[in-house]
Automatic annotation (TrEMBL):
Membrane-crossing segments per the record: none
Family note: Belongs to the class-I aminoacyl-tRNA synthetase family.
Coiled-coil intervals, chain numbering: 889-958
Domain (Aminoacyl-tRNA synthetase class Ia): residue spans on this chain: 69-627
Descriptive protein name: valine--tRNA ligase
Species this protein is from: Anisodus acutangulus
EC number: 6.1.1.9
Keywords: Aminoacyl-tRNA synthetase, ATP-binding, Coiled coil, Ligase, Nucleotide-binding, Protein biosynthesis
Amino acid sequence: MASSSFLSSTSSSCFRFNPLLFSTKRHRSTLSLSRSRRFFAINAEADSRGIFNSPQVAKSFDFTNEERIYKWWESQGYFKPNIVKGSDPFVVPMPPPNVTGSLHMGHAMFVTLEDIMIRYNRMKGRPTLWLPGTDHAGIATQLVVERMLAAEGVKRTDLGRDKFTERVWEWKQKYGGTITNQIKRLGASCDWTRERFTLDEQLSRAVVEAFIRLHEKGLIYQGSYMVNWSPNLQTAVSDLEVEYSEEPGTLYYIKYRVAGGSKSDFLTIATTRPETLFGDTAVAVNPQDERYAKYIGKQAIVPLTFGRHVPIISDKYVDKDFGTGVLKISPGHDHNDYLLARKLGLPILNVMNKDGTLNEVAGLYAGLDRFEARKKLWSDLEETGLAVKKEAHTSRVPRSQRGGEIIEPLVSKQWFVSMEPLAERALEAVSKGELTIMPERFEKIYNHWLSNIKDWCISRQLWWGHRIPVWYVSGVDCEEEYIVARSSREALAKAQEKYGKNVEIFQDPDVLDTWFSSSLWPFSTLGWPDESAEDFKRFYPTSVLETGHDILFFWVARMVMMGIEFTGTVPFSTVYLHGLIRDSQGRKMSKTLGNVIDPLDTIAEYGTDALRFTLALGTAGQDLNLSTERLTSNKAFTNKLWNAGKFILRNLPRQDDTPAWEALRAHKFDKVESVLKLPLPECWVVSKLHVLVDDVTASYDKFFFGDIGREIYDFFWSDFADWYIEASKARLYHSGDHSVASVSQAALLYIFENILKLLHPFMPFVTEELWQALPSRGEALIVSAWPPTSLPRNIDSIKKFENLQALTRAIRNVRAEYAVEPAKLISAYVVANPDVIQYISGEKEVLALLSRLDLGNVNFAESPPGDANQSVHIVAGEGLEAYLPLSDMVDISAEVQRLSKRLVKMQAEYDGLMARLSSSSFVEKAPEDIVRGAREKAAEAEEKLTLTRNRLNFLKSKVLIAN
């Protein structure tokens, strides 16, 4: 049965029927039977497909139905762009997740936000394309397959490069689609027919073309420079693949004797990595440090190196307050030392092999693992008297994001891209307004990074990825001669032309950094370098790139640079950056902390819509704390929508009642005159809806998703469910006039249809299922037209209904204060000026229903009643008051007795608290939080005591007057 009880703003329960609020049970059984028949007729088509359920037969929205709905959308081709000649397409390139990946909350965030953008623009009628794909993830994928092989007792070196890559492709075919299927589970309405993998033939061709064009312009070069080195993987890794963590370690203090000096002439250095001392090429002090001024220009003897001398230099780079103020300079093993050495012209010594063991430069320590060497070195320093001390020290340790090992700064021969010329044009794109970054504050970070950019190491010593398109000629110096070509055939032809027919060539063994291919993603997926490709002509440049702010530099900025370089156009007009998903305490999610929340588990418990709505309520660029409380609340929101649909469907005319449907459809809400003719509640709610449509549409266009979610939530829950649905029952159940009921039926259907449209981008599944249950729904909600803006609204009706709401709230507050039973109907005497009386009395049935008043004893007048002193007087607003007879609500004498007893008990509790607080031993000796808590309890008790005393005095005065 439909409910007539008031739904509080915090309630998530179904609409409940309270027979005590009705004076009649007119035709209820007939309505129930006719509604059931109508439902089955309306939903016959959907039921036959086995796709959709309805609130008429299902108690709540069934999350397990989401996958069926998704497959139906996809089968109908709704995810493909509807190409209209001359129209403005809306295109979003998906940040391609790693092929090794499984769904985490970061994926859930970007999928939710991008799908919101796509669904909104699709409903707006724009040709809408969301480009999906996956990244080959060089390091991550190679690690996964190597571990799989290790379980079989096989190493990749045992297989060789070709066999190993075959095994990787086999793994990819078997497991590589996991992340794609999980993304679909989130409701991602991508055009999966255009899905791309970064190692697909066309994308691989684009990568080679990009390398060649950059090389031809002199922007790609080869050289030996400092990189992040992974000893286990034996490859360079990007800055993004290095994570720094604060970890406990040791600071070692070591004596460096001054050459030619006495035993007392030595410098003590403090270092966290003593094993790198074999690579020292100088000892540095701050020029303003008077302690060491006399040693500047002299030589220091590096310990345990059989007397190797290095200069003692001065440089302001040295922090005289760290450690001893003396710094060992190891340019081959520290990024800062490397830069200092290049500035000062110091030699660079490498003491480490690619596998993390020390090399021959370390003398007797050669062959030892770096950490084993550290232990032995310290022991030997202690024996020789060169060890001063060691102490606990917290260090910022660089670890591999993939393997977890400590990364080694190492000078290595690699391929690099000169970034400065590319960065200059990317900076101009923002300054000229060709590219908008949201939130705006990230523009400063973007500009700072590009203005201080370093050359990009793009080579990786892996077997899985895009092989560097460079070939060397056997017997020719690789440092001086190499061939850049699009294929081995082209490379051989070039070599033969220069060196003769019998030449032999071999390809560079390295592959390109995964980020290199990813930076080509927006345009290579659309057909570049074939710029005549239909997709490229139609959809490039793309509209929005949405991604996490943590990869602004490593991916977003590089895409901007590459897009401008190769297409002459910024690859997207807007970059929208979201924050990180954190736990309820604001901590970053990690397996170590055990606070990782699995999106698929969350979907199983709360539903996809609740998860999406929760994630979308964040602020652009800000981290979001995810809690079960938020998810539970938004699951309740899903149920509330479902129950609203249940109520509306049960209160529409029978399908075969042609006159009723003609009357319902005759009500129009898009013309000023039609809105002005509506009764007050309908005029109010329709006006509020039209204001909402304008506000929400503007927020969608500005990407203010948090505002959108909150605005729709507040309107639906408060205005529509808590107020209008309740008010409509006065017409649906009490009017006795089908024409009066018709306007409420029309308004309910109109408002609900538009709520579903506004909310669909956020909560696609429940809104589509509800849409399919509605009569005359037309096409699927996913491709239905967005509500038009600038529809008529009556501001005066909004103010009038707000007065009615204020009066209702005031009456409800009094009922609550006097603990009036919910089912009990009371009298009311409303006092107002004639204009207010006219529209309030016109909605007498609504007021009575919402406030639980006795309809026959609701009176309106311009002055107070004669027995006003026996009533509770309430002021709802300026010029609007009411008097509620006390005798209707409580037995005054009994209430006086009850409150008197309660007052005695409350006074005793208060006196006890005050006695405790007046005790100096308690205040001085008890913990501060205990004392503070006691004071707060005392203040609260005093407030309740005052309120109870005032109410008791008020009731006593009424008893005296009555006597």
